[in-house]
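User: Predict 3-deoxy-7-phosphoheptulonate synthase's structure from this.
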Amino acid sequence: MVIVMGPDATQGDIEAIVEIIGTAGGDAFVSRGVSRTIIGLVGDVEQFGALNLKGMRGVAEVMRVTAPYKLVSRDNHPERSTVRVGGVPIGPGLVTLIAGPCAVETPQQTLDAALMAKAAGATLLRGGAYKPRTSPYAFQGLGEAGLRILADVREQTGLPIVTEVVDAHDVELVASYADMLQIGTRNAQNFALLQAVGGIGKPVMLKRGMNATIEEWLMAAEYIAQRGNLDIVLCERGIRTFETATRNTLDVSAVPVAQRLSHLPVIIDPSHSGGRRDLVLPLTRAAIAVGADGVIIDVHPQPELALCDGPQALVHSDLEELSEVMRALPPLLGKTATGDALATA
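Assistant:
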């Protein structure tokens, strides 16, 4: 069961509902979005029905949600959501370009990549300070030193930061620097981490687990939402299949399916799905064509020297074409590139 609070509901109204649900032996989880507050109820639904919750002050609607992912489902939120990251919107009607280096290596490399990304139309900067790698001998990231570099580059470019957090113990530290926290594919079902980012009060990008079904992906998002955070962006980054021609298999069908089932924005990662520079732009076109709300792309000034995923990072010549793609394709789908929308706002 889900309670939707009205726009004029006070904190006292919310606390009164939490208290009455507690006295009935249930649990109430409060999730605050941009425009409204939703309270998810766990317990004896029949007993909740006898409490006259609809008549309580501040309540706009009470409904039963059959989907297991109650807070992120469109059953209780028919309109698709827009998530704002440092003032930059991601959501319906827009195509948001997030770009930058897969890993932060040096201040100059990160600044150069950020300027390349911004010139191509990016409105958010991605960059990894913590890198969970398949091999324990691979570059694991600079940690807090990398976060400081990202913060300095944000100051110089004006691009809000999207960066990954890999451990629940680091959530507070990473959130003190980042504008958006990223959960990578390897942590997509790290439930302690999902709950930790849900309670920190920053937007979250949740990548699909490499072996996850769409329902498992949405249930992972529910862990975040249940801790009070509805500002979640889903990211399809390719799943593991029998195919070896690409790094992962990009499931473009996941975009319309997830958008039908959930109100959350859905973006695509063409870099980590294809794994090769020559595939990134074709997959970006596919992402826009299928209705994705954005793309997240690797950029590097010298990919041959990159410490992480150099073969998939775009260079200057690619970015000229990417810029043209971002100008030309979204309007054909009735959408606007976020950079253009912000420039005319």
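The two ends are 39 Å apart (CA to CA).
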